[in-house]
Amino acid sequence: MAAGSGRHSASPPLFPSVAAQDAVKSLYPMVNEEETPLPRCWSSKDKYSFIGLSQNNLRVHYKGHGKNHKDAASVRATHPIPAACGLYYYEVKIVSKGRDGYMGIGLSSQGVNMNRLPGWDKNSFGYHGDDGHSFCSSGSGHPYGPTFTTGDVIGCGINLIDNVCFYTKNGHYLGVAFADLPSQLYPTVGLQTPGEVVDANFGQSPFVFDIGEMMRELQSRVRNTIQTFPVPDTHGQWQSMLHRMVSTYLVHHGYCATAEAFARSTAQDFDEELTSIRNRQKIQKLVLSGRMGEAIDTVHQLYPGLLENNKNLLFMLKVRQFIEMVNGTDTDVVRGGSHSPSRPPTQDTPSPPPPSTCWATNGRPAEHSTGSSSTPPPPSSASTAAPPSSSSSSSSSSSSIIQQHTSVIQSTKDIIGGGGGGGGGGGGGGGGGGTTAPPPPTPPSTTDDRTTTTTTTTTTTTTTTHHLHHHHHHHNRHHRRPSTPPVHLQWRPPHQSSSPPPPPPPQQNPASSSSSSSSSSSSSSSSSSSSSSSSSNMQDSDTEMECVEPAAAAAAAAAAAAAASHSNGFANGFDKHLEEEEEEEEDEEEEEEEAMDIENGGGGGGGGVGGRKMCGGSPAAIERMLHFGREVQHMSQVLKIHLGKSDQNKKMLQDAFSLLAYNDPWNSPVGWQLDPLQREPVCQSLNSAILESHQLPRRPPLEICVAHTRQLLTLMSRSGLGSCAFSSVDHDWRLRWNLTQQKLNPCWHSDVPSPPTRPLQFDQSGIQTFISSTLMFPTVLIVILSWMSFWIAPDATPARVTLGVTSILTMATQYSQSTKNLPPVSYIKSLDIWMITCMVYVFMALLEFAIVYHVHYRRTQAPPPSPPRCPAATNAALHQTLALDRPGVKSWAVGWREFWRGDTAIDEASRVFFPLTYFSFVVGYFVLLTGGQEGGSGGDGGGRGVIYT
Amino acid sequence: MGVAVLARRDVEHSRVYIDQLYSNDSQKCFQAVSELKFAVIGSVREKGSIIEQGVVVRLLQILRAPELDILLKTEVATVLNSLAKGLPEHAAALVQAGLLPVLWEQLESCPSGGSGSAYTQMLLCCLRSIYRQGCAPPPPAWDQKLLSSLIQHGYHPPSNQECVANILAHACKTNEQQQQLVDAGGADLVACLLCSPVSRVQLPALHCLTAMCFNNERVSSIIATKSYGGKAVPDLLVGLMARDRPRDMQLAAATALTFLHRAGALSADDPRIIYKTLQCLVRMCRRDREVWERVEAANTLAYLTEVSTDLQRTAAMTDHLIHTMNDYLKDTTPPNASVPQGISVSPVSCRQYDNPSTWPELMVGAALKVYASLGANDEDIRQRVIKTDVLMNTIVTSLSAASPPVQLAAVRCLHSLSRSVHTLRTTLQDHVVWRPLMTVLKTSNNEELVTVSSSTLCNLLLEFSPSKEQILDQGAVEFLCGLTRRPHPGLRLNAVWALMNMAFQAEHRVKVSILHHLGTDQIFRLLSDTDVHILMKTLGLLRNLLSTKGHIDQIMQCHGKEIMQAIILILEGEHSAEVKEQALCILANIADGDIAKSAIMSNEDVLKKLMNYMVIPNVKLQIAATFCISNLIWNVEEGAAERQNKLREMGVYKLLQNLMTTTDTGLFDKVKTALQQFH
């Protein structure tokens, strides 16, 4: 309970401090704070010694003697004003005008003498309160505005577009003071006589002057300038150019239906054939769904020679394939050895499994079908699986571990895994004993064992892939367009339910593809067939996932088995098959493996991420993955020899292999690679390469244009052109683009996703949960434990003492543990309060026993008590003791005299008093914590509230 | 266009359709009107020639004919609309031909439910075009029914909204109309139109609002409380005044808010006024704006800041306003400046900016008005204004040679500046401003101008003003006495005031001259004036005339009888205590003179009145009466004992003794002094 409420109430307090920071940031949204931080307070370094700072470096006071001009002192803000602000503004409130009110407010460059008021020196500008004059880099001022004194709020603003500075007084605009300002100015104030105190507001709190309206004016001005920018437009060329840009973009990314519609409506034509676009689209689909193996094969098939000429690209794809294998989404695990480009595309390439069927059948029936299909007992499967695998020792050990599982479901997986292993071995060594484990549902008629196994395994993994893929995508989309996801999910099943009964016989396609082994004929036929099927699909749905499925659709039983194994992958824990294999992979990872091994036991329970397992959880798949990894490494070495060293490739490979070092790669530091978003760059480079090979531009002109513009904006901000603050490409462009996209193409969410953009989000709730669960909750338990002593008879001295002392010791350990993880700070953390209170409670429980024991002892010594004859001393002592507990006693609503029944009464009182006060403390603590943190800025290391004194 | 050219070439052709226009066959007529429509659209010359040919009469006839087809009438209205959009003269000719009554009549006969019908729309458009030309005399008093139907028409289609708003904006001129408009639900309509997304509707709606609010407290307070869509009208106006709105919209909204403020609906310290409106107007005065915007903004700003000292102070420090206004004085518009096309200024200044050669004058006038408002109350601001470069020269030249509006602005500015003693003695003296001022006073027959000028003259005639003597030499007395005979009460007041100022501690000859030129009969006339202020100032004048001993005797010798008559007149009349106090003070002054005393002593009536006032429960009157008595019995003067005896007989001594019990210290002192004089 404590943990739950703690998490709930503690999560918001972190935001106010962030929001307070953001109040400044939100004024200037276009400023890149990593490059050009915004001034947020006065600099404690960049000031003259007569200046004192307080209140988070926002209040400035004078502490010199202030006799004459030589005693002037000024202070600059921490950072210069970034040009990307467009319009920068800060306000200074005169808290006290001091003796003479010689205050100057203004701007100055870095390095201007701080022993002067702003405005007196070169590159320094100021407005002075004593005479209301403005000083523009000279000792003599010009009459500018009114004087200002205690209580006035003076604002200073820079319009970075026109490069002018203006002031405001109490919210009234005073007019332009300086023009032609240099760049990189700092907000500056200068004071000269004792007692002068000013407060600055850099945007942390609302301004007196309405700066927002001025910004809006500038924004509309800039926008107007852009919109009315003269374009040399003769005979509508401009218009057609824009059309062309859009159309090339659509073609480039393979939105072929949209492109067609657009071309029709704007009377354009595009250079590429429609089929070619569709082919590219298909490949992109494969890559984006993580089916890298198929994608590579399709590329081989459709664009022969492309990857051969571009080894680096091939390598990139392979590495990605490896990652997808780890992810459990790749289908090509079986054909591990077939990476050589000369090899013709084989059976599985044009025939990915039918996701729709899986989709339709999986889920509920999975368990039953599993039960029916898992006939072979685990031990036999293990023994059959062991021999064919090439590296016997590791494999056998892995299967022996599998035997530990008693689940029926696991056995099914074993079979398939073993079969798959056989397939893998066959790929490497010539198809030894793969026959020993034919999966029951597959008809072994025309194809050999290897093919059958392939199909099955493919089905298995793809289903996982598919599911995962959808899972991810669902989430992605959910982030991007909150309105569409339901459509996306609900829209699929109906369509598939119309198509699922797969008419073609399962063997037909594998047979045809295996027969047409020669590369040229097969590629042409398959491409044509796939394109035709895709086009037919395109007409009704544009999803295209189904375009290949009928060919591969296995028998219903096979699908059922696949579904079963698929569900296995989700249901069962994955364990240590990995580690033995690892040794051959990369020696440097050994230590980590050890660590992982240890963690494995607890990890299974604590993971809770939905049971995502490496390679979908299948041990054989892992084996194949490792095998593939070796090949990739080999390829990298070959590449190194041929093309020289490439840091990029090396890094890529290292990152990919690092995944193996973690038990749960998804949550590891290199886990980002498994994010489906990471497929997009690969997809793009592949797409670009294909287009390049056809002498088409690598990137669509529209993207280039946008990139140019974006670059231009950064350049503008760097070179001090303020207009960039009000011309946001991203916002306008993306918004409109998305809108038009959605209008043009109702199912664009199932098309290729937009360029990866994901807002950075820091999830603080993790820390909260961590603290609540690891610290708070145990301490609550310990405290409750200590109350057990109230129910134990006072006679049982050893039991009660032990209980109390143990609780105290545990508390102390907990406390020291908790402080160890947190940075040492001088103030009292709220966590400390929590811990100390808990400890006091435990201690009080022990103390209570002492009293009880004392009373009990006396009572047993004294004659049987009758209330009137109670010894006075005892009575008084007790009276005092119980006076502490009075509230509890009172709430008990028992009269004082009646209540007095001796030691058990104290225990009984404590049973109510302790829990009551303790839980009210717990509640109060979290309420207080929430309230206390709203004012605080910046939580401490543990993310807990800070109680300020 | 093509048609127009063709028509011009082929006179015969044009004859044909004009002839057909008079045909009784409605089909032929329709044909002709259609051709006419195409001929006039877009061609100013064609419009002129058609109007010259007197076709309008026939068109109106068609409109009026009840039996004719509505389609034909719509076509005719279209033609009339097109004609009205031509030059202002064309519109004037249409009005002359009696277009307006016909249109109103037709509109009235339109079913009010059929707002959307093309005919109604066209009628409204036609009316709008006429009114926008600024030459239509507003309907003297609106027909209530017509007005409410007009407002009903104004709700639905945006084109109607625009037309109705324009018509109302241009037609609403008098207080009565404003009231009628609000009673008919005009305020709700305007609030609704302000929320329209179409700027073509918002802008006339703003103008309409402005016209309704102008100088009308009741209407303004009603409008300020109206709201639409949950936002009060002033807030809607602030929204329209935002900096990213079109400039003319900002200006119109600021004007509307200004008028609301001046009519008392919004106070000066309302942030919407002191922050938003003021800043908006000052911003509009900037150099980078169009000339017409700057002039309009400055005029509005002058109006906004005319009264409130707070607003004057704020405006004076906002955005270098005083400097900006200085630009107005120096600004020379480029000679080939073109007339802005399609600007939508408020109906008040309609057609004012058509001639670029008048722009500098307009700007000078506007700037002087702003200066006048800024310097009205605050001496600091006045000094800053005075220091502006060419201001005094501009004022002097504008006074002598400029159009009346600019002269007026110059005099206003001078009036503001003359409120400063320092300026009176220095700058105004240096620039000899009284000379052109006197010229203006003597030559002009513009009453407002003369009023302001004479009030300025009042200030210039104050006794510490160095120009007093020179002005006197210029025959000011004669002129001012002439002014007292003017029918305009303001003028009379200013004249008497000036004379009073002039007579204060003046030489004897001046006083004589005043009395001579004014004449006792005129004094009587002034004393019987209905305006209390004039009465007071006249009494003040008498008091100033009868000030030092010598002067009192001399004047009383000549005019004693009349003066005593006048005083009795006042004392017997139904006047307020202040007036009677003045009269008693005059008596006291008279009693100060040696010979003049007899005038009072010999008049039992007056003495009884004095005693009467001593017992009246009004301390001020009692003081004045006692003061008069004590002057009469002043014992160093000869004949004092005699007077004392007489008064004692009348029971004055007793009265005085009774008054010793008073609690008022002022009265007590006077009574004590008087008692001491009694032997």
UniProtKB/TrEMBL annotation, chain A:
Stretch list, region Disordered: 332-546, 578-615
Domain B30.2/SPRY, first and last residues per copy: 10-207
Comp. bias intervals (Basic residues): 466-482
Domain CTLH: 276-333
Any Pfam family the entry gives: SPRY
Family: Belongs to the RANBP9/10 family.
Ranges of compositional bias, category Low complexity: 381-400, 452-465, 509-536
Segments of skewed composition (Gly residues): 416-435, 600-614
Name listed for the protein in its UniProt record: Ran-binding protein 9
SUPFAM superfamilies: Concanavalin A-like lectins/glucanases (SSF49899), Neurotransmitter-gated ion-channel transmembrane pore (SSF90112)
Single GO term (MF): chloride channel activity
Compositionally biased spans, kind Polar residues: 401-413
Acidic residues: compositionally biased ranges: 580-597
GO CC term (a single one): membrane
PANTHER family recorded: RAN BINDING PROTEIN 9-RELATED
CDD domains with a match to the protein in the record: LGIC_TM_anion, SPRY_RanBP9_10
InterPro entries attached to this UniProt entry: B30.2/SPRY (IPR001870), B30.2/SPRY_sf (IPR043136), ConA-like_dom_sf (IPR013320), CRA_dom (IPR013144), CTLH/CRA (IPR024964), CTLH_C (IPR006595), GABAA/Glycine_rcpt (IPR006028), LisH (IPR006594)
Transmembrane segments: 770-792, 799-817, 833-853
Segments of skewed composition (Pro residues): 499-508
PROSITE patterns: B302_SPRY, CTLH, LISH
Keyword terms: Membrane, Transmembrane, Transmembrane helix
TrEMBL record, chain B:
Subcellular location: Cytoplasm; Nucleus
Main location: cytoplasm
Superkingdom of this protein's organism: Eukaryota
BP GO annotations: proteasome-mediated ubiquitin-dependent protein catabolic process
Database matches in Gene3D superfamilies: Leucine-rich Repeat Variant
SUPFAM superfamilies recorded: ARM repeat (SSF48371)
Keyword annotations from UniProtKB, A to Z: Cytoplasm, Nucleus, Repeat
Gene Ontology cellular-component terms listed: cytoplasm; GID complex; nucleus
Name of the molecule in the record: Armadillo repeat-containing protein 8
